[in-house]
Design a protein that fits this description.
The chain has 3 helices and no strands. By secondary structure, the chain is an all-alpha fold. The radius of gyration is 17 Å and the shape is flat. The mean pLDDT is 92.
Length: 100
């Protein structure tokens, strides 16, 4: 696998970030399938519903987030937790989603 040299980022971290990026795209695609075809629809050649597929893709994304925090490159569990809390507060103000 060929990686561009990026200042101060190891090849392992570059690969992790590339896969993280790919997983984000796969989550986006899975959400689109839920909206286009419905949550319970099974796509051709797939034994999972669109919602099950989304769940799997979200799990893959979480695995990559876990890896990037373990590589100690400046992304921490604490930082992610704070970011998540900040987002929930914004959603309370700017969305109709019920937040506990």
């Amino acid at each position: 696998m060929v990686h561009q040299t990026v200042k101060n980022i190891s090849p392992e971290t570059i690969e992790t970030l590339i896969i993280l990026q790919e997983e984000c795209a796969e989550v986006t695609q899975a959400v689109s399938k839920v909206f286009r075809f419905g949550p319970d629809q099974m796509m051709d050649g797939c034994d999972d519903t669109n919602m099950q597929r989304l769940e799997k893709e979200l799990g893959d994304l979480l695995a990559m987030v876990k890896l990037v925090t373990e590589q100690q490159v400046g992304i921490t569990v604490e930082g992610l937790s704070q970011g998540a809390e900040n987002k929930l507060e914004k959603l309370k103000t700017w969305s109709n989603i019920r937040i506990k």
